[in-house]
Amino acid sequence: MGSRIFLLLCVIGLTHASTEKITDGTECVPHSQPWQVGLFEGTSLRCGGVLIDRRWVLTAAHCTGSRYWVRLGEHSLSHLDWTEQIRRSGFSATHPNYQGALQSHDSDLRLLRLRTPVLLTRSVQPLALPTTCAAAGTKCHISGWGTTNQPWNPFPDKLQCLNVSIVPSATCQTVFPGRITDNMVCAGGIAGQDACQGDSGGPLVCGGVLQGLVSWGSVGPCGQEGIPGVYTNICKYVDWIQEIMKNN
Fold first, then answer.
1. What's the pLDDT band for 3 if we cut at 50, 70, 90?
2. Considering the chain, what is the average pLDDT of its residues?
3. The Peptidase S1 domain covers which part of the protein (predicted)?
């Protein structure tokens, strides 16, 4: 099994596509984010994701690939730690209210069912869904393998983490007038610190539960002062998530 994982890691490779990424983060404590998922198509990392059950991964709806190689238990994408697990995604369900990024970013979430359940270890664990929504000012963090500065800079090999705080909805409405719904939650806004192209679908973790998925943000350079990142507000979708998992 170990040799098969090593070969798959070599075949899948380390090419990163231009999707949401973390700017000005720091290297996570290895395997401190055991729910973190990397979604690969061929040799390209397309999106992040989050394990919420042995057989289910949540990601952003705008991550539109039909079949992903799902990598779990990772820290360094180029070195084998013998904690890695690789699965293939099969059935997927995009939220029925998602209209596409060109129309609206509302309901930007998608469930992926793994063809084979993961083995739960210290490095591979699901993240709990919320029972309440996160209040403004709540301390949270995000994680991903995206660019650490600008889209043209090198991608990090090791998982990056960044602390962010929930921004009041009214503040976010001022920054993005007419574009923020109750199904979105905003966080960050400190200069140089943000998600950016590449971490799409990755987790916003607050108090040990999943409160958001990286969705969208500034059109210009990532991490602009006063411009928060926008996340899918998971507390609004718990019933839908549980229904899909139960019925499929």
1. very low
2. 86
3. 22-246
CATH of domain 138-236: 2.40.10.10
Tell the burial category of 236 from Cβ atoms under 10 Å away from its Cβ (0-12, 13-18, 19+): middle
Calpha distance 77→41 (Å, rounded): 15
Q: What is the pTM of this model?
A: 0.88
Ranges of each domain in the chain:
34-126+237-247, 138-236
Checking if the pLDDT of 203 tops 70, the result is yes
Catalytic, out of 62, 75, 105, 141: 62
Equal fold, 34-126+237-247 vs 138-236: yes
- Domain 34-126+237-247 fold is Thrombin, subunit H (2.40.10)
Indicate if 108 belongs to the active site. yes
With left for phi above 0 and alpha for psi between -120 and 50, is residue 247 left, alpha or beta? alpha
Catalytic-residue membership of 239 = no
- Segment 163-181 mean pLDDT: 95
| pLDDT tens track for 103-116 | 789 999 999 999 99
**Which residue out of 89, 123, 200, 218 is catalytically annotated?**
200
What does the alpha-carbon distance between residue 54 and residue 125 come to, in Å, rounded to a whole number?
8
Alpha-carbon distance 224 to 57, whole Å?
30
Cα dist. 102→51, 68, 185, 186, 235 in Å?
27, 23, 19, 19, 24
In this prediction, residue 22 has a pLDDT band, given cuts at 50, 70 and 90, of low
- Asked if 200 is an active-site residue, the reply is yes
Q: Answer yes or no: is pLDDT of 204 > 60.
A: yes
